[in-house]
């Protein structure tokens, strides 16, 4: 099904901003690994190792701007999906906290972000398929 | 909320994408409104009303009339 001009405009702007954010993230990540890891313990080292978060914040800003550009129905759909994904992530990570007490291996906090991304994609996919089945 | 958008769109010979184009929204929004899964905001309802040249109440009707 052909996308409307509105969808194309919104999608292009989102991809452009998200690509820029990822580029900043990737450059800062490589720089932080290359220069931050060998540095002596100091406040500067912490700041260098944290620097990829600038790219991450730009990605969050791109998502926020995307939510401002999409139409009202898609905005509601996305915000509901984010809320469900956040709840799912909270449930999964909280459960794993109990499992760690039961002897499961300790995981890095980075895994929470990956679970959140996976949960968001899963929720959006399930809801999209559900809506398509409903409209048949 | 019930609406006559599918019927009005058909009389104009427009596809959902055509209507989405005219309203500057996504095709998914038109589909969700037509199938009753989403009730549009007042500004969008008025935009639909202007586009078809009909009052809002001639396009949208509540499921049950309230007192």
TrEMBL record, chain B:
<dbReference type="Pfam" id="PF01381">
    <property type="entry name" value="HTH_3"/>
</dbReference>
<keyword id="KW-0238">DNA-binding</keyword>
<feature type="domain" description="HTH cro/C1-type">
    <location>
        <begin position="5"/>
        <end position="59"/>
    </location>
</feature>
<protein>
    <submittedName>
        <fullName>Putative transcriptional regulator</fullName>
    </submittedName>
</protein>
<dbReference type="GO" id="GO:0003677">
    <property type="term" value="F:DNA binding"/>
</dbReference>
<dbReference type="InterPro" id="IPR001387">
    <property type="entry name" value="Cro/C1-type_HTH"/>
</dbReference>
<dbReference type="InterPro" id="IPR010982">
    <property type="entry name" value="Lambda_DNA-bd_dom_sf"/>
</dbReference>
């Amino acid at each position: 099904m052909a996308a409307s001009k509105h969808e194309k405009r919104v999608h292009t702007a989102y991809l452009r901003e998200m690509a820029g954010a990822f580029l900043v993230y990737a450059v800062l990540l490589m720089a932080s690994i290359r220069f931050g890891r060998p540095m002596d313990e100091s406040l500067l080292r912490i700041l260098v190792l944290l620097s990829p978060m600038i790219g991450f914040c730009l990605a969050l800003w791109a998502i926020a701007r995307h939510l401002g550009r999409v139409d009202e129905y898609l905005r509601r759909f996305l915000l509901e999906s984010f809320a469900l994904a956040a709840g799912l992530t909270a449930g999964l990570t909280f459960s794993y906290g109990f499992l760690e007490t039961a002897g499961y291996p300790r995981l890095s906090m980075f895994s929470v972000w990956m679970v959140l991304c996976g949960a968001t994609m899963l929720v959006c996919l399930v809801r999209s398929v559900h809506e398509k089945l409903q409209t048949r | 909320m019930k609406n006559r958008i599918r019927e009005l769109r058909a009389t104009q010979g427009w596809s959902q994408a055509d209507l989405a184009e005219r309203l500057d929204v996504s095709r998914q929004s038109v589909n969700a409104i037509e199938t009753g899964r989403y009730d549009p905001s007042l500004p969008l309802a008025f935009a639909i009303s202007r586009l078809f040249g009909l009052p809002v109440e001639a396009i949208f009707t509540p499921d049950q009339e309230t007192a």
